Amino acid sequence: MTYRTIRQRLLLGAGSTVIMSLLLAAAANSQASAIQYDPSQRSASDSRNASASDHPTASHVHFWEELMLEPQDAWSKLRDSFQWREQSLSAKAQARVDEWIDHYRSSPENIAEITGRASPWLAWITQQISDRNLPGELALIPFVESSFDPNARSHRGAAGLWQFMPGTGDALGLVRNGHYDGRLDVVTSTNAALDYLEMQADQWYEGDLQLSLAAYNAGAGTVNKAKQRAENQGLQGSYWDLNLPQETMQYLPKLLAIAKIIDDPERYNVSLPDIHTEPAFAKVKLEHSVTLSEASKLLRIDKSALAELNPGLLNGALNPSSSQTLLVPEDVDHDVLAELSNGANERQAIASANTPDTYRVESGDSLSVIASRYNLSAQELMRLNEIERPEALQAGQLLTLSGR
């Protein structure tokens, strides 16, 4: 029995017990109320208190409130994290959003297809955004960027769920070589995208994430110039004041439009797939090479299921010099996972013993190259050295390689 099955049965059992208790309590209250409600059984004092006894008691109201619980799925959790639904937009700005609402709702089958592709990723992405206390609407950026296709590639060279260009991915430490492309790795690229949005918001826009979204699409230089022009004209300089490239002008309206539809799908005649609140995958740290074919045989699952969860592995194999994390379906047996990881601890200890404490940057180095050389992630290397702008790495700079 899997962890999820055990948890669901426990919750179901607990929920059934609570509901049965409530039903019994309600039945007792209903019986008492029925006796009080019978005029033939009333005393003089009962008649004087009729106005109180003829109305639902607090127990009745509480009972029905307990039963009318919100269904717990990934969509309801996402809706709970929305922060922009109450923002007040000008009539002109609202018209831009409404235009995209009409566009999306005209093809509900497209929404169903795209949200279906989101099924493996939505719960995990929503959790990452919630952990950072960011607006939940950001979880829908992949809807706009890639239609939730981790393998999506644009004609301009952008790739992955978050559509990183090669240069931007390199600057953020997303490893890219013949074995692996971090832009296609959903876990790695999601963390990089959220880091990037927060970093630009703090660096340029005093925390304004909507301006950071525009910069995510068009580049900070383009947005900063447009913002300056708007302010010179006496405008506030918010996203809605800016004159930007057409694609960027539509970027936030698209995001707000699909968030509006997700917030109330019945209103827009849209069906959403059932997605559980827990992530659909587990992360396995490996320090040894393994092919997806080998892993699928050991885990007794289809190779295609592993390939779907690990699009960053370009040649169907995990090479620890590029990536150490393999994603597997969440319900894989833990004993089998331990067998897959066998030997990883010993290899990790050897690697750790051979890793120096510091490294001096040489000409031509990048964070991703240095990180992979010493079996670190680029994000970990940035954290250890408090690096905010990976592109600012300079020859001669001394980097810390461990927390020792």
Automatic annotation (TrEMBL):
Cleaved signal peptide residues? 1-27
Q: Does the keyword Nucleotide-binding apply?
A: no
Q: Which protein family is named in the record?
A: Belongs to the transglycosylase Slt family.
Under which name does UniProt file this protein? Transglycosylase SLT domain-containing protein
Q: Does the keyword Hydrolase apply?
A: no
Residue stretches making up the LysM domain: 357-401
One family from Pfam that matches here is LysM
* Gene3D superfamilies the UniProt entry points to: 1.10.530.10, LysM domain (3.10.350.10)
Give UniProt keywords alphabetically. Signal
